[in-house]
Design brief:
Two copies of one chain form a homodimer.
Chain A: E1 4-10, H1 14-25, H2 27-34, E2 37-44, E3 61-62, H3 65-70, E4 76-79, H4 87-96, E5 100-103, H5 106-122, E6 127-128, H6 139-146, E7 152-158, H7 161-172, H8 177-186, H9 195-198, H10 201-215, E8 217-218, E9 225-226, H11 234-242, E10 245-256, E11 259-270, E12 282-289, E13 293-300, H12 304-322, E14 341-342, E15 352-361, H13 367-377, E16 382-388, E17 395-401, E18 404-405, H14 406-416, E19 422-431
Helix pairs in contact in A: 1-12, 4-5, 5-10, 7-8, 13-14
Chain lengths: 436, 436
């Protein structure tokens, strides 16, 4: 049995450094577990000068990713540069050469994953991507293998640590959105341009990958309904608390009447739910299967070392097979590629739920009755109304509706937000009361 | 490629029925995922008359487990009778015949697992046992494969759903232990003889298996320190709540100075910890690795269908390999058998922590000073003292100590409990304040 496996790493940024550090520091442990030494044979990056604080033989550093891929000593190619190009080209080239690929590239997998899966399939190679969703949490493995006896029914995930950190600071430390975002940036949790995180795009990439695997269907990325958390204010967090609820940026994939409902948006959930307890940069994923019932997976969703842990777990799985010359027995998405059909995506306007509405209006008699009249005309009935800040303008009016659809809410708000007494666009948040 | 795998099930009780039901109802799904049909070829049980509400061809029912094992059409033998014998003999016989075995038998694995692992190793067969810990939660797979890049440092688990149900009812519904136990029995969560569950033995079996796999060491079952929850009273739950704590039956395995600390006992943990939120019959396991940090896995820890889900996930993993004639690339315990050495088990008296002490004394001046004097003589200092029920006897005295060791507590209580003013044995509960 072969007892050395050569690893080539493309991208020596944060996750690349974490991966190299783990392969180095836990080299003996991995050998003890697998009988195999994982050798970092080459690292490719445009910047091979900066001292990253990890001692690496300069001879293995290269600017030439293609030479790394072609190196016969590299058995596994690890793509950690992110983005679409040249990442996709590198991955496809490695697969074409029959090499196994490990990647953390959620954006690429979510939007152009099919190119990669097909390239793997055609070349008898394979691609592993545990690190692309949930950082160090072994969620893909759990869904693909641990729950494989089940029809999966729903996934509710807190999949973006930055957004969760901001919402946690708003709710536990009383910060406003901008303040919490600045703190997240200061701590290195948020980028200078935070839009991927706070606008829900990163979480959408992850729920696309997770839903593809869990439900065995192709998910067209553009069909995902995505809203971010920029409109959430301190008063919304406070109102949520008064209602026994917490605001979380949830990524949801679930079957409804044979259609796949797939959405990312800030949602109010009961304080007592396990997902409500997930604080700071942690992620958690709640998965329901027809026989296993509710399960939940929790851990750090990002960061050099948790993400590196997931990358290395994939390298180890591959190494265990390569040294035995086993064929890959579990397809990357859990199902064989030809089994996939396009999901019928449920129109986001059909999503049912109670809604939290927060309006800012002038302080004039009759405003409330005009607004509730319009809601009524749209078939929306109210469970409760709170009016705050009487005497000062704008007045905040908060309403909680009975169950309705997003379509009815949007229709009603189209009219309400055009009233001259309404001073800014109304915020409407879905309330998930029946979260299992 | 072979496209049918024959499954033989020994034991047609609760988990057996769940397993058969899942194999039947999700037959097409499993085929879609794996390209393989899993056929229940034979079911062996002493009782083949009782109608279990699952339609099964009577021709596959047998009282002869040995014939089932020897049947050339049976590729995978699933042992679900529980207990030590004849379960161990059946498993070893199947392994001797080179068959793969799936079992949920935690008592057998925890106490005599080595016989089975060696039999598997010697015969080039394998044994899978996801269902033995955490019911439907894919915890063994996560530890063995998902976290395999990490040195694991600690496991804190709520591993017994019955005990957790009782503690939840005591804390959320104000029940006393006996009342909650009776309710658990009425609901089918607890056996007529509940000692395995409430005395911590079942949780000890599970932490033994989990620690063996996570830490790569042999765990002598008798070395585990085990205490149950029978002594917990309603007033303890109330005091815990006043202190911002919750009482949970925790199973702990963790490294301390190169020794393995392994214990099952009721512990007070901060209300804000994820483990504190685990209610009713749910289980959860908090695992810390050197690179991944904190992770947590949550789900139903028992029951026909969640446990069946884990059994079937093991059968599927085996089937995926058998049809490709792959050799098993991941050893059952994550490490190859020869890598295992005996763990040095840390003496339970060394366990450090703050302690909650609840005493019942006569109502007489000077009692408190005598008791705190004895604690002081044993090097134990007090963080707070609460005295309740003045005027009536016995008086409840509750003390919270600063950090100390179990040895000091036990020494002090040996003296205190012999005082004539102390009316019943003192309850001492570990407080895990630094739970990560």
């Amino acid at each position: 049995m072969k007892d050395h496996i050569g690893v080539g790493i493309i991208g020596f940024g944060t996750v690349g450094m974490g991966t190299v550090r783990i392969l180095k520091e836990n080299r003996e442990l991995i050998h003890e577990r697998t009988g195999v030494y994982l050798n970092v044979r080459k690292i490719a990056d445009l910047d091979i000068e900066t001292d990253r604080g990890i001692s690496v033989d300069p001879a293995i550093l290269t600017r030439d990713a293609n030479a790394l891929i072609a190196d016969p000593g590299v058995d596994v190619v690890v793509e950690l540069i992110g983005g679409y190009e040249p990442a996709a080209t590198f991955i496809k080239e490695a697969l074409k050469q029959g090499k196994y690929v490990v990647t953390a590239n959620k954006a690429l997998l979510a939007t152009r994953g099919w190119e990669l899966f097909e390239a793997a399939h055609e070349n008898g190679a394979n691609i592993a991507f545990e690190a692309s969703v949930g950082g160090g949490i072994p969620i893909l493995r759990s869904v693909r293998e641990g729950l494989c006896a089940n029809h999966l029914q729903s996934i509710h995930g807190i999949l973006n640590g930055t957004a969760n950190y901001i919402l946690t600071q708003m709710s536990d430390a009383g910060m406003d959105f901008e303040e919490a975002l600045k703190e997240a940036q200061r701590k290195g949790y948020a980028e200078a341009d935070p839009s991927f995180d706070v606008d829900g795009i990163d979480a959408a990439h992850k729920i696309a990958i997770l839903s593809t695997m869990a439900f065995g269907v192709r998910v067209p990325f553009d069909a995902i309904s995505v809203r971010g958390i920029r409109d959430i204010r301190q008063l919304d967090v406070l109102h949520a608390h008064e209602l026994g609820l917490v605001i979380k940026l949830l990524a949801v994939g679930q079957w409804q009447d044979g259609e796949l409902e797939i959405r990312v948006h800030p949602v109010m959930i009961p304080e007592s739910h396990m997902l409500a307890k997930v604080k700071g940069v942690y992620n958690a994923i709640h998965v329901i299967g027809d026989f296993v019932g509710s399960t939940l997976y929790y851990g750090k969703g990002a960061g050099m070392l948790p993400t590196g842990s997931a990358v290395v777990s994939d390298i180890i799985s591959i190494a265990r097979q390569l040294v035995r010359e086993n064929t890959y027995d579990i397809p990357p998405l859990g199902y064989p590629l030809p089994a996939f059909r396009d999901a019928v995506i449920r129109d986001a306007s059909k999503v049912r739920g109670a809604y939290y509405l927060r309006m800012k209006t002038v302080d004039r008699p009759g405003v409330l009755s005009r607004i509730s009249g319009i809601l009524g005309e749209n078939g929306i009935s109210l469970a409760s109304v709170i009016q705050k800040g009487e005497g000062e303008e704008p007045v905040a009016i908060v309403m909680v509706t009975h169950e309705t659809t997003r379509r009815q809410i949007d229709e009603a708000l189209k009219t309400i937000d055009q009233l001259d007494v309404v001073m800014e666009p109304t915020l409407a948040l879905h309330i998930e009361l029946d979260l299992k």
